Amino acid sequence: xxxxxxxxxxxxxxxxxxxxxxxxxxxxxxxxxxxxxxxPEREALRYCPPANSNTDSSVPPAVERSxxxxxxxxxxxxxxxxxxxxxxxxGDRVGVVIPQKxxxxxxxxxxxxxxxxxxxxxxxxxxxxxxxxxxxxxxRAVVVDSAVTKTVTDIKEDCPSLEHVIELGDSSRESSIGFxxxxxxxxxxxxxxxxxxxxxxxxMYTSGSTGPPKGVLHSHxxxxxxxxxxxxxxDQTLTEGTLWTPADWAWGAALGGTLFAGWHYGATVVxxxxxxxxxxxxxxxxxxxxxxxxxxxxxxxxLLMDISDPEGTYDLxxxxxxxxxxxxxxxxxxxxxxxxxxxxxxEFYGQTELNLCVGNCSRWFDSQxxxxxxxxxxxxxxxxxxxxxxxxxxxxIGEIAVKPADDRIFFTEYWNNPQATAEKQTAGGWYLTxxxxxxxxxxxxxxxxxxxxxxxxxxxxxxxxxIERTILSHPRVEQVGVIGVPDDTVxxxxxxxxxxTGKEVIAHDEIRDEIRELxxxxxxxxxxxxxxxxxxxxxxxxxxxxxxxxxxxxxESDN
Length: 559
Prior knowledge:
Shape: globular
Largest sheet: 9 strands, mixed
Strand order of the largest sheet: 2-1-11-10-12-13-14-15-16
Structural class: alpha/beta
Distance between the termini: 64 Å
Radius of gyration: 23 Å
Number of helices: 17
CATH superfamily of the largest domain: ANL, N-terminal domain
């Protein structure tokens, strides 16, 4: 029986008391995910290509190719041999700018077989974003989707360490190497780097929602931390599951908490790159591929709510929905409860630096609407005074701090930024999240906001998340971002930027009045927005988080 980082526990209390990070002395994720499978011929990856422009959006694409764990092992070994011929060595950084295509995990696996460090990046990044990250990480090579090849080759001169651009397919460009050409004549076996849980594995960049993105260096133990968390928020049923997420595989929760977590437990993962999120097509895809476990960010769940009676319309195999990135609203939880007979909805919380450490796990305890859940096994969670770092009393707002039983599952350092690394941890060994919350007497945590996003108005400290959650309960609101702007009288005024659902013309003043009244009724008089801006779109990070700092910049430029 292969080694697994997390086993089943009947109760939350037993899991908290019994679980320990018993990591092996030698560990390479490529061996764990591919060669330690009890059945290497089992289907590991099912690839569904994007539909073409002439295809009915409600019809999901057919499967183009299925890969067993053995086939992935062979192809990643051939790629590792090709990269080695290019001069890639242990410790070198290799960028990965590929959507949900097989070459994405193949490149990571090949890197780890060499001892190289992966730099996951999204195809949604523009020229400046890619140049910053490839240059900052000193990447020597980058494997790219053909859609971004020109962008990367255009910035190559501005990335001093970048020597090789490898493009998917059989490239004939002088500026890039064809992926298939690189691996075509390589042997199917390769010498695997002898690594440990402490060996550098990936540099993952923060979303930049509160400042310039920072490179977060992780060791191989990262993937074990993500796998342990996923086992719990997917209700301890991953070993027989089929997983899919609409989230980009550059995002840690999708790459580590869905794709690699699924493979750690021997599950099948479906890849399906898309440019748009069509609810009808997504439900048809879930049904056709018999998806049992899906990681769906709350924004995606809100879009799925447009489909009435999904279980009556589609032959679904869904067992568990997991969500992260922003708090779940009560409306989403009610919709899942009312629309599905036996589908659980679990929320989880983590950071690029600190793994996935809090969650709602329906197998263990009831979810509370608006709560982040409870600490997952293997972590201590505290709410600390932001200034003194002393523990706060129950129901008192403070900064979320995390302490793992094994530091290796957390980040190693901020790349080339020792000051930021030192500021992340207290003298008592707590890792600071920069997120404000409170914890009740039952152990549930309740998110308030980022420390940088707190609004000081009329003598009160107001977190934007609670206001956003309330505004999102209005049936005509699809997205919202709340910020504070300077005001001589009240300190800061509360401004809300909203995107409406539907395209029909509606009275904006009426919507504004309804939203203000909704906030007054549900929250407090001082929390209602002084101004409501109705816009076509909101600035978001590549992981779908609203960039409140960009909203503040927008307000400043308009005023």
